From TrEMBL:
Protein's name in the database: Leucine-rich repeat-containing N-terminal plant-type domain-containing protein
Entry's Gene Ontology cellular component terms: plasma membrane
The keyword Cell inner membrane is assigned to this record: no
InterPro entries for the chain: Leu-rich_rpt, Leu-rich_rpt_typical-subtyp, LRR_dom_sf
Gene3D superfamilies noted in UniProt: Ribonuclease Inhibitor (3.80.10.10)
Gene source species: Capsella rubella
Membrane-traversing stretches: 495-516
Amino acid sequence: YLDLSYNNFSSSIPSEFGRLTNLEFLDLHQNGFTGEFPSSVSNLTGLTYLDLSNNKFTSSFPHVYNLAKLSSLELSNNRFEGKVPEWIWNLPSLTLMSLANNSLDSFEGSPEAPLNSSLVYLSLSSNAFQGFFPMLPQSMRYIVAADNNFTGEIPLSMCNPRNLLYVDLSNNSFSDSFPRCLSESLIVLNLRHNNLRRFPDKFSNSSLKMLDVGHNQIRGKLPRSLVNCKSLEFLNVESNRINDTFPFWMTALPNMLLIILRSNRFNGPIYSPQHPLSFPELRLFDISHNKFDGSLPPNYFMNWSAALVRGREYKGPSFYIGDSYPLRFHPSIVMNVKGMTMELEKVFTDYAFVDFSRNRLGGQIPESIGLLKSLIALNLSNNDFTGQIPSSLATLNELQSLDLSRNQLSGNIPQELSALSFLADINMSHNNLTGQIPQGTQFVSQDDTSFEGNINLCGLPLHKSCLEKNGAPSPQTRQLKPSKQEYMLNSKAAMMGYGLTLIMFGLGIGYVIAAYRPTWFLKFF
């Protein structure tokens, strides 16, 4: 047993390593080893575990062809290049192999070569692979091949494994569709950033929890057969060419946590009296950049139970290979803050996100928005909302980003909003708002562009005083007492929040970690 990991070694590996013939475990990861890995390692015939990851090894694939007992081979984050040798599939004990983040470009032998392998986990991500995709052995359960240049259709051989759980083929150039025959046991399917043009004819997978087909060229309608995926938690179809009405049938999926329909051609209303939206677990709802229209009733958000209180951390399904090898799918989302598009690398649903921007929604903003106590970001910009800004927004104590710009909102900005201590980004520009901007720190610290385009609005940060000619303050619209309807909404929120707090007591608090963190996340975290 030899573990030299997490040191600062920077030399090449001496060939004398080949004399350690009784060695079973060798871990050299997280160093600065350079050069070729010595071919003498093939003498270590008793080796079962070899980890060379996170070094600077160069040249071709290491010579480990004699290691019949090797079960785990970790070569990720090095500078290996060239072809994956055909003999690697013949190592009888090999169950885990990670080749991620190298410069490997192809496979020796035929596509059928891996069929007799014993591999359970294979990572090929972030290399230079192109052309055909190797056939998978029946033992395979986890395949990660993201960030390459595989082309053509996703092969039917993907259906060979009988217990396949995890497939990540994102950021490639696969075309057409994906096989309907994918294993019934599949839990995660990530195909984002490819050239797929259609969904399969039917979904019948009752185990699927996460489906990401964002950033493809998929046309047509969202397949209603997705309703058969009763375990589905995460659905992302963003940036495709889907032309459909709102999928009210999705309310039959009780575990939905994240729904992302943004940047498609969805149209029509998002409210139906016959199909009231009831998503008891929903935390993220993004339908932006579509053509949805119609108005929303005051109680529209009343049945979004999980968003009424801060809830559990969402990490996605976890998988363990053997006793200790973790694998986790981190869904990513895109958010708009003050006109800037930012991709969040990881999503945690201790908080809620709602983005209805760039649609044709009208009428008043539902008062029930104030029930979503865990709401951290609300974007209703570029719609046709009218009436006053609901004072119930003042109850959203976690709110950090609020964008109501480019609507037809009128009346005063509720002064109560100045009490939202975490509110860091505000945009209410290009409406018909009047009176004085609330003078809390969160408001006066904004750019004046956050309130421009409201000709009757005054006060900091605008360079327009609210003093009348006689020097007296301009009259403010009196603060109205809560309506009976608002009182009932708040009462229901309190009762539901109390119940959910008891249920979720003790669950961990999550975070949102951004590839490029918006300022408002940095201020809070």
